[in-house]
Amino acid sequence: MIAPETEHRFRSWLAVPLICLPLFFQVLPLQAQEPKNSSFGIQEQVSWTTSRIKGTPEPSLPYETERAFPNLKFNQPLAIATASGQKRFFVAERKGKIYSFPYEDQKTSQTDLFFDLKERVKDLNEIYGITFHPQFEKNRFVYICYVLKAGLQEGTRVSRFKVSETDPPRCDPNSEEILINWLSGGHNGGCLRFGPDGYLYISTGDGGPASPPDIHNSGQDVSNLLSCVLRIDVNRVGKDRFGKDRLYSIPSDNPFVNEPGARPEIWAFGFRNPWKMCFHPENGDLWVGDVGWELWELVYRVEKGGNYGWSIREGRQPVKPGMKIGPTPILPPTVEHSHREARSITGGYFYGSSRLKGLQDTYVYGDYSTGKLWGLRYGDQRVNWHQELANSTLKVTAFAIDDTGEVYIVDIQGGGFHRLIPITKSEHNPDFPTQLSQTGLFQSTAAHEIAPGVIPYSINAPAWADHATGERFVALPPETTIAISKKGIWNFPKDSVLMKTISLETELGNPQSSRRLETQLLHFNGARWMGYSYRWNEEQTDATLVAPEGETLKFEVSTQTKPVKKHQTEWHIPSRTECAVCHTPYQNHLSVLSFDEAQLNRSQKYGDVVDHQLRTLAHIKVLPESVWTDSKGTKSHYLVDPYESSAALTLRARSYLHANCRHCHRSNGGGGSTIELGASLKPDGMKAIGVTPTQGKFGIQDAQVISPGDPYRSVLLYRMSKLGKGRMPYSGSSLVDERGTRLISDWIASFPPSSDYRSGIVSRLRNRHSNLLHESIQIADQDFVNEKLQEILGSTSGALYLLDSFERIAMSDEMKDQIVLLAAQGGNPLVRDLFERFLPEDQRIKRLGVKFDQSALLSVEGDSREGKKLFFEMAGLQCRNCHRVHQHGKALGPDLTQIGKRLSRAELLENVIQPSKKIDEKYFTYVIETRSGKLYTGVLIKKDKSGLTIKDAKNETLKISHDEIENVVIQKKSIMPDQLLRDLTIEQASHLLAYLESLK
What we know:
By secondary structure, the protein is an alpha+beta fold. The protein is built from 20 helices and 51 strands. 41% of the residues are buried. Mean pLDDT is 87; it is low at 1-30.
């Protein structure tokens, strides 16, 4: 955080004041200062010579990349094309120049300037696409997509030019004819491809920046050209909707030519930024790579009229669920990659060369941010094979393909062409240390005594980890240092290691009971950071490398309170994939979360000497001297201990959010919302204060991510305070940090409240809650107290206020127990989740969740009588609303009277878990869109001349006339919801199965 000189501080509890009086105070000078003692913490650097952390224990991928055309280098190549009759690649550089070169000669060293578009279009910003007409040898046409500055209504355009018949060919700059244009922005699409039908296909983005998502709400809007793949006929002229001549016509079979208000050019829609397209060389299928937002990267086999969801959703993740859907139902991605392995997908080509026979007919594509390359094969309406091919360091912005079917990978950063070859040099190390004692990091592992050259460090603001603590160390190869780039990025030398040993007191508050759980390593292999965990043995003498999928430890933890409370605790050691969620291995400056100036800007004890940490690290050349020098200036960056009450409230709260939340909630962090919680951002830059949440309001009236002056309308505080689904932080802890929630509550309350009418209403409600609570504390009548408390617990905000009052308002333990009991029995899971942590373990709900051991469930003997009660009576399950048994229930779904005759117990479970896997055609889901824009979903009951009759999920019958129907889509999907057993206990699920099994 840039150290502020003053802090604006305001505290408002229940009333909205008419006048806000700002209070100012001086922040303590916490940034680096010269120590009074001239001794350094470490007098001289000792080389770390014992390292055995090399390579990776993981098996090798089948391919790697090699440089093609090694004598050529381009300046930010973005698009590559070929022309019939020309065995040349035409390479469009980002800033306007297009070069060509013959691709049959790998040793070629000369390129020929084809066109300098910047010379013709002075305000050109970028070239995004280039393609040549299929009849190029006859008409000499080339098509170029380029972008002017952002924000222009016609700032992205596709133009046609004529090409000379010279050798090498040159583009005639005076031959430009503008075909089509659309709004320019951050996402412009811009890929151009001619299909096997001879029509020109054009990709367009949503015209917006990376965040917030889809600022123009264009994803589902077919009245403009954004977020689409377009299809036009450039061989014929036509007229636009205003009757003006244009240089293309609309193919008569385009899907929306008769859609009122829709642009007829649209072939498919619902894309965010479709980046590179191709057609299968034999069947003509169109494939698109679509750059995702915060969680998913997407690959689509595009269908005519297809809707690919943006910005209602990003793959499976809801983004703007309230947006009106476009004219066709949303289709799923063909392949999706989470941001654990990809961040900016680039579509590729189908490999056809005989050089790598194992890749023939494989769609090869990659990712700009991670350098990963994948292959897939598709047939019979499904992906038949999908595999990661190579893990490169390339910034993949484009692919190229020659007339032999050889696919080249284009690297914008290095400016070169590359191609796949079978792996020759593997990072796989069969001798990778499987024991911590083998790593060379310790002189004595049992004593936790580090090896010479391994350096301890501490940080200002550790993340909350369920009472666990960490000891941290850094180790660099001999004669190396961390370099600082001009942008302030810390670049570590290859084979650097960051290490943290995590310990937990099994008797909280008793340091003597501390035991080591795991030691985590981050190893920089020269290209990216890789995470590994070692689990400590019971004897605490050594630790074993944990398998890639991670591990869970179980042990008992007790308190020092009287009476002593004991509970079973699970400690989750993350999988290597989970490590990459926070320590993203694909942007190295984002991988390291705590070894930076803001966290290291503090004192550290080295034996008997206390020195400023940055001063010592600079002295022994771990860091450049400039880091220590800059840390003493007025623009120094530092965090504080969030639990240190002497520091400023805002500084403590921002440090807490930085340490616990920023790794996801930052640009490119992968969080599912737009908020950013880095401590150096100004309040407006957080995109959270006064902002309506996009990922759920949890029943909070007028909810905001952070509601100024009102903690109980703040979703951020609610998520931190609860257990179960939706709790934050998402990873790294499973217990509520009570000190942390009090801190954030105090900080939110210190903001001047907004003065709109809603705040007045909420303020009056909060005053009523306060009065009800104080009355409850003072009155002994149990029924009266229950009535008052139940009113407060009737809303999520009231429950959050009541929870916050546990530590702020004097009340008896009996009163607290009463509140917890009422919350647990009240039937509102949003309220129960806030208080469940106070319940004894045996009273907490142990639900199956999304993933569970099916064999364990099948082994539990259920009671069919209890199952019958669940089937007919349980709220939230209500099987009777869709199924009939012996004339009881409703007939929306199949009659289950004799289901136990037809299906075994295991088959019954499979049908409940995956209701759409095996489904009778008569129970297919019908999605009906009316001309007024309404959508109806249900099971078809009747179809006749008058219209369609369906039953919806509420078992209500709807009749829709043919005149009202705009579109009907039949989905081979059950109307029965997935994950129906998620919120049941294993006993409840076994009872339900027993009842179904008994129906014979």
